[in-house]
Design brief:
globular; about 140 residues; binds guanosine-5'-diphosphate; 7 helices; alpha+beta; four-stranded antiparallel β-sheet; Alpha-Beta Plaits; about 40% helix
Length: about 140
């Protein structure tokens, strides 16, 4: 059953370019409610654990280095059909293939530095939200 919640990160490349405000505007305009949010920085160990599911992929090391390279914004978002609708809002993994108007089309620079993360399932949304937030940090 859908939980109506997803998890997102504004990744280091987008934070560095001052895109936090623009990306949050798109998220709010699309009807998502912010349940939890924090500005933080992942250590290499934490980034490695977050992306453990990709540990066999050839780009894993590069991904971990990039995601621990600077601060990020982590958030839990709520909306009906949140996981699928958020994936539509952010667009394809590779910004060159992302649809017009999507967050990655607007703000991402490459397939690795692609501005935002969005959970790919309700189960992963719950796991990823729990990685960053306690129950006391959700409203
Ligand atoms: P997502 O669900 O759209 O984020 O894509 P994936 O789950 O397939 O990959 C997770 C993240 O790994 C992506 O958001 C990118 O930051 C990174 N990534 C994916 N494919 C590649 C690649 O071919 N090269 C590199 N360097 N990074 C990649």
């Amino acid at each position: 059953m859908a939980t109506n919640r997803t998890f997102t990160m504004i990744k280091p490349d987008a934070v560095e370019k001052n895109y936090i405000g623009g990306i949050l505007d798109k998220i709010n305009a699309a009807g998502f409610r912010i349940v939890a949010m924090k500005y933080t920085k992942l250590s290499k160990v934490e980034a490695g654990a977050f992306y453990e599911v990709h540990s066999e992929r050839p780009f894993y090391r590069e991904l971990v280095d990039y995601m621990s390279n600077g601060p990020i914004v982590a958030a839990i978002l709520e909306k009906e059909n949140a996981v699928e609708d958020f994936r539509t809002l952010i667009g394809a993994t590779n910004p060159a293939e992302a649809a017009e108007g999507t967050i990655r089309k607007l703000y991402a620079e490459s397939i690795s530095a692609n501005a935002v993360h969005g959970s790919d399932s309700d189960d992963n949304a719950a796991i990823e939200g729990n990685f960053f937030f306690s129950s006391l940090e959700r409203f």
